[in-house]
Amino acid sequence: MRREYTRPIRLKNLYIGGNNHIYIQSMCNIRTSKTDEVIAQIKALEAEGCEIIRVSVLDIDDAKAIKTIVENINIPLVADIHFDPRLAIESIKSGANAIRLNPGNIRNESDIKEIVELCKEYRIPIRIGVNGGSLPNRQIPTPEAMIEAATYHISILEKYDFHNIVLSLKSSDIDIATEAYRLASEKWDYPLHVGITEAGTLFSGTIKSSIGIARILDLGIGNTIRVSLTDDPIYEIRAAKEILNNLKLIKNVAILTSCPTCGRTQYNMIPIAQEIEAFLHKLKSNIHVAVMGCVVNGPGEARTADIGVAGGHGEALLFKHGEPIRKIKEEDIIPELEAEILKMIEQKKNEEE
Amino acid sequence: MRREYTRPIRLKNLYIGGNNHIYIQSMCNIRTSKTDEVIAQIKALEAEGCEIIRVSVLDIDDAKAIKTIVENINIPLVADIHFDPRLAIESIKSGANAIRLNPGNIRNESDIKEIVELCKEYRIPIRIGVNGGSLPNRQIPTPEAMIEAATYHISILEKYDFHNIVLSLKSSDIDIATEAYRLASEKWDYPLHVGITEAGTLFSGTIKSSIGIARILDLGIGNTIRVSLTDDPIYEIRAAKEILNNLKLIKNVAILTSCPTCGRTQYNMIPIAQEIEAFLHKLKSNIHVAVMGCVVNGPGEARTADIGVAGGHGEALLFKHGEPIRKIKEEDIIPELEAEILKMIEQKKNEEE
To answer: Which of A222, A246, A270 is the last residue of a domain?
Structure first.
């Protein structure tokens, strides 16, 4: 079932699934009970474009801290719980907007029942998160074994007539993950949260997640995504936005085209491209900007860009839609290009109104 | 036509196409006539895993410099020429192992003939590089317009009975590039050199290239690849290896699994994962290493890894295939894990012999 036909699941002020856009998630990597630090991290992630945040609940202090955290943030919060039903119950009562919990890991039937009833009462969904690395009985993580585990967890919730479910089937192998998500999309109408788990560091993890998540989204499935990186979660949001933008599945994210530089490049282009990229990350606009190495090929090759610079010797040519506008001294490239970008975004807005 | 059915094209000591593996390319970003610097850059790229190197030839000094460069490197060198037939001729005579040239850009028929005859005499191939941003008559870069341009360039060479051709169809839009490569694979049996052009900075360019190149390779096509980045070309090689490794299209590249860290992580894991990653980049082994945040989930989730560490408070647990081996003090994690990795690689080698 394609993503737009999945059952919409309410999460605070959002609906995951159906015709809604693909939401970007991240997870705090600070102990949840350190509320001030956690709130600061979530606010930074929110500002970057994070739409759903997850926190791990390792003890009762973490569960209780959720109350203060949700009061101080705007985006929905998912409490991540393993095994311990008390932590689930306390997290729900503290105001978690969803819990991530695999009901098959809760031993006591009455505990499961209590959690499900509480989720119904509080109208919050449960995300079942099957992880290839932690299947029951230490099974080898095949797509089929992951589907079997998901079937088991889902059946427990459905027995209590609970269908307010989001499902993930993460693996650190992109082939296994892709097939598991594909099978799940054929079997259930629950929205899918997509990710590649334990993907690695900023560099290799971004590559693995980009390939894996894009491949799954290319199947027409996936309603929320998380890029998992061994680094500051801010990069998870930036990478997620880039992935969605490349697949044309997100609005109002800028594109930076920049050439790899060659023997023809006569100005110090790499730091300029990096600084313009950081500047664009903060804007909510689909503007397309180019930073090119030379005036010979730059403006022509980047004429699909709205605006750009092409470097010469100690100066750069400013161009718009491939047409030259004026020269800029090398030291003024960054501020002048940034000012021109803001001006153009303003113009675009006015034209649209 | 799938990659293994393409016509093998000899490039110095390699054959591109047919049943040969997918070669990794990069391009120098230093003026070619600065021979010492260029040789040093190529040697560094070679050591990292670069198998084919391209240099731009902007003037006759660059063309002449190729002689010294090819004498001092081991991998094949491709001379990149635009418009000027003299530079092509001089590059061939200087010993370039291939030229990248679009014959339609050479105005004079007799010049084209001379270049083709020289390529036959020297037994070197021509790579035709169609770039979506620089189509004839400033056409809008559609996949069809790119195929039309390729058809034109190829027809010129085929008229002279020259079939020693490698083809690329790069665009900075991954949808356009994918479709152009797909169409080309249906139309010709020439090997394809795959890349996404002007992809951007290290961060966003890696994401765009990962998605685009993987999507094209997933079609079963593509015989060589280049990741284009606005940064040190060393990262182009690292990214290319990661992409191929994720698609299981390369041998002897290590995998690092590492979790995104969470509130449970009790040691300073990010720099450890980064340092182990850099260490693995230098090894030619398919070893699978894990750096995990906690002993609760780490060893189990990473049991498909050959070896790994999971952090505790001021120490880490060393595990092999998910089974605990021994504890390591935090300050000793990196050297001890590296030593264990080398030991395991040695053991694997002995077992294989």
So the answer is: A246
CATH number of the CATH domain containing B121: 3.20.20.20
CB of B19 within 8 Å of a chain A CB? The answer is no
Q: In the listed set B213, B246, B279, which residue is the last one of a domain according to the structure?
A: B246
Cβ contact, residue pair A55, B292, below 8 Å:
no
Indicate yes or no: CB of A228 within 8 angstroms of CB of B260.
yes
Nearest by CB to residue B200, choosing from A173, A229, A256, is A256
Q: Are residues B229 and B316 in the same domain?
A: no
A224 has pLDDT over 90: yes
Residue B276 host element (H or E):
helix B269-281
Report how many domains make up chain A.
2
Domain that holds residue B69: 3-246
Among A211, A248, A268, A319, which would you mutate to test the B interface (most chain B Cβ atoms within 10 Å of its Cβ)?
A: A211
B237 has a chain A CB within 8 A of its CB: no
Q: Is B236 close to A28, i.e. CB distance below 8 A?
A: no
Average pLDDT over residues A115-140: 93
B198 pLDDT higher than 80: yes
Nearest CB to B29; choose among A243, A248, A261: A261
Same domain? For B155 and B285 the reply is no
Over chain B, what is the mean pLDDT? 94
B206 CB within 8 Å of a chain A CB: yes
- Asked if pLDDT for residue B77 goes beyond 90, the answer is yes
Q: What is the pLDDT of residues A261-317, one digit of tens each?
A: 887 788 888 999 999 999 998 888 999 999 998 887 788 888 889 999 998 888 999
Q: Are residues B172 and B149 in the same domain?
A: yes
B residues 253-292 lying closer than 8 A (beta carbon) to A: 256-265, 269-270, 273-274, 277, 290-292
Tell whether pTM > 0.90. yes
Residues of A in contact with B205 (CB under 8 A): 258
State the CATH number of the domain containing residue B326: 3.30.413.10
Which pLDDT score is estimated for B311? 87
- Is the pLDDT confidence value at A318 over 90? yes
Which of the four pLDDT bands, split at 50, 70 and 90, describes residue B312?
confident
